[in-house]
Amino acid sequence: MNPEDLPIRDIKPLLPIPDISLYLFIALIGVVTLLLIAVGIFAWRWWQKHRHIDPRIGWLQALDRIDYTNPKKAAYIMTKYGRLLAEDKRREEILEQLLPRLERYKYQKEVPPLDEETKRYMRLFIEMSHDAL
User: Fold this and answer.
1) What are phi and psi of 42, to 5 degrees?
2) How many Å apart are CA 32 and CA 87, to the nearest integer?
């Protein structure tokens, strides 16, 4: 065939191709942002759950909740947590004065109500422990 016999075909213009790369980029940034927020929330909750809390604060809260109407239980709680919280010389001295007073409220079936002086020693020890922490 002769090249002159071939029909001439016109060159057509390029077809428009929809460009969605900007939308894909914005969607990718949105998904990555959401993932980072989710990981941040997860890490924050894990940290809140596993952070180290000073046990002395819990012991002191237990001393704050002492029910003075139940002298036997109050004496046991004060002895247990008082020994744990007596870290300096002053608190040790007060605890040494307080423990003999608490002995008469332990190891018996029926105990008398707490006297005011024992309550004052207990409150003083608790107050000093608050000041130390």
Assistant:
1) -60, -45
2) 50
For residues 58 and 80, the answer to whether their CB atoms sit within 8 Å is no
**Which pLDDT score, from 0 to 100, does residue 5 have?**
75
Residue 107's region, left for phi above 0, alpha for psi from -120 to 50, else beta, is: left
Helix, strand, coil % in the chain, rounded to nearest 5: 70, 0, 30
Number of domains in the chain: 1
Residues 58, 59, 62, 64: is their CA dihedral positive or negative? negative
Question: What is the rounded distance in angstroms from the CA atom of residue 115 to the CA atom of residue 12?
Answer: 107
The answer as to whether 70 is a domain residue is: yes
What are the CB-based long-range contacts (under 8 Å, 24+) for 83-88?
A: 84/56, 84/59, 85/56, 85/59, 85/60, 85/125, 85/129, 87/132, 88/132
- The answer as to whether 20 is a domain residue is no
Structural domain boundaries enclosing 102: 55-132
For the chain, 133 residues long, the average pLDDT of each consecutive 10-residue run is 73 82 94 98 92 86 91 93 91 92 89 91 91 84
Query: In this structure, is residue 37 part of a structural domain?
Result: no
